[in-house]
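Kindly inspect this chain:
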Amino acid sequence: MSESCKWLHQQLEQLPLIKYPFNLKDLPENGIYFFYEEGETWGHGGIKPRIVRVGTSKDGNLQKRLAEHFLLDESKMNFDASKPAPRERSIFRKNIGRALLNQRKDPYLKIWEIDFTSHKTREKYANLRNITKEKTIETEITALLRAKFAFRVIEFTGQAQRMGKTGLESTLIGTLARCPHCKPSANWLGKYSPKPQIANGKLWLIQHLNANPINQQDRKTLLKAIAATKLQT
């Protein structure tokens, strides 16, 4: 697993590291993305950046997914108790907010944990929400993501081949999560997550952490996808 993790990091270095601001139209419509976080380095020698999150999306949705993480449509900050907040469209944002609130021992974490995507839930718990506070937290999350995170992306068609337990996404996550050499820094924000999978791990992820690592066929598939992506950039 250690060698596979090192190999994955090295192969992805062929692709540009993308930071905010970026043009969504320069990104593929389908693919897998890999987030890096300032201050987080790999464990294979030197100070190369460590992958802290792997993600993908349904067909045709990659640009939208990354836009939601970085909140490129800032009109979505005009939410109230009747509308979902940006975190409801990005589990990455929700996880960062969880860690920030838990770090501060803020009791509002209980409200943050509620899933407000449905109208019924928003109506039921509307009286518990502090929208001004939520907007302050959302603004902080956006600033953190834009300043501290960067990503690489490989173009990859075929939703079934990308996503879920049987897709490449799970084996990529398993490769990173199970590497004994890559570890979080002492100051990694994820250590404050109320989710033990994140707090005791090194990725902003909860699922697929125990998946099998990439195999030889996966490597061939990745190299082909990376080469095709390079031709498009």
